[in-house]
Amino acid sequence: MYHKPYVILGIVVFLIILATPYWVTAGNIKYEDIHKELAKPKGVNCIMGVKWMASKHMELLNEWREIAVRKGVRKYKTENGVFNVSLTECWRCHNYDEYCKKCHEFMDVRPVCWDCHYNPGMKIPTVNYIK
């Protein structure tokens, strides 16, 4: 192959340019940045600690989905108490629009949960049936 060093150099430069946005923004978005603006939860105890929930709540929801649907488990015990395996458990303390939605928009995350599941902040469309 002719000009092999130039091809390799071109690939390396391309990969550096491609990865630059990740290096520049790595670690810049922090939960603390948005946490100050979120509505305070109404409850006393969250299912897990605040830091843990901020980073891993989706893992918990996925686990809840598995144990509820596949195993029929409806209660979840942590060091903070016993909780119902349901999104409504979250909404006892958190306002969807002022907490969940605001944080997801800040972090630019679009969960697909609401494609199937109702949440308190959703507007239910009215359907006009034709007879």
Quick synopsis:
This protein is mainly alpha-helical. The protein is 50% helix and 6% strand.
What does this structure look like?
The chain has a domain at 30-115. It has 131 residues and is mainly alpha-helical. A two-stranded antiparallel sheet has the order 1-2. It has helices at residues 4-25, 31-35, 50-71, 87-91, 96-107, and strands at residues 75-78, 81-84. It starts with a helix and ends in a 24-residue tail after the last helix. The model has no long low-confidence stretch (mean pLDDT 81). The longest helix has 22 residues, at 4-25. A hairpin with a 2-residue loop joins β1 and β2 (81-84).
Core attributes:
single chain, 131 residues, mainly alpha, two-stranded antiparallel ribbon, elongated
Q: Runs with pLDDT <50, length 5+?
A: none
Written as H for each helix and E for each strand, in order along the chain, the element string is HHHEEHH
For the largest sheet, list the strands in their spatial order: 1-2
The amount of helix comes to 40-55%
N-to-C span: 72 Å
Please state the average pLDDT score: 81
- Major β-sheet, in short? 2 strands, antiparallel
- How many strand segments? 2
Shape: elongated
The DSSP helix count reads: 5
Question: Radius of gyration, Cα only, in angstroms?
Answer: 22 Å
